Amino acid sequence: MESPLALYRRYRPETFADVIGQDHVTTPLRAALANNRVNHAYLFSGPRGCGKTTSARILARALNCAQAPTPDPCGECESCRDLARGGPGSIDVIEIDAASHGGVDDARELREKAFFAPVRSAYKVYIIDEAHMVTTQGFNALLKLVEEPPPHLRFIFATTEPEKVIPTIRSRTHHYPFRLIPPRSLAAYLSEICEQEGVSVEPAALPLIVRAGAGSARDSLSVLDQLLGGAGPEGITHDLATGLLGYTPTSLLDDVVDAFAAGDGAAVFGVVDRVIETGQDPRRFTEDLLRRLRDLVIVAAVPDAPASGLIDVSEDQADRLVAQAARFGPAELSRAADLVATGLTEMRGATAPRLLLELICARVLLPGADSSEAGVLARVDRLEKRAAIAGGAPSPAPVREDPAPEAAQHPVQPVDEEPTPPPEPVAEAAPPPPPPPAPDPEPVVPPAPVSEEPAVPAAATSGGLSLVEVRRLWPDVVEATKLRRRVAWMHLTQNSQVVAVDGNVLTLGFSNVGARDSFVNGGCDEILRQAAIDVAGVDWTVEAIVDPGAGGQPVAESSAPASPPAGEDAPPPPRPAADSSAAAREAIRETRPAGPPDADDGRPSAEADQAVHPDDPEADSSGLAGAELLQRELGAEVIEEIRHS
Question: Taking the model in full, what pTM does it have?
Answer without folding.
Answer: 0.56
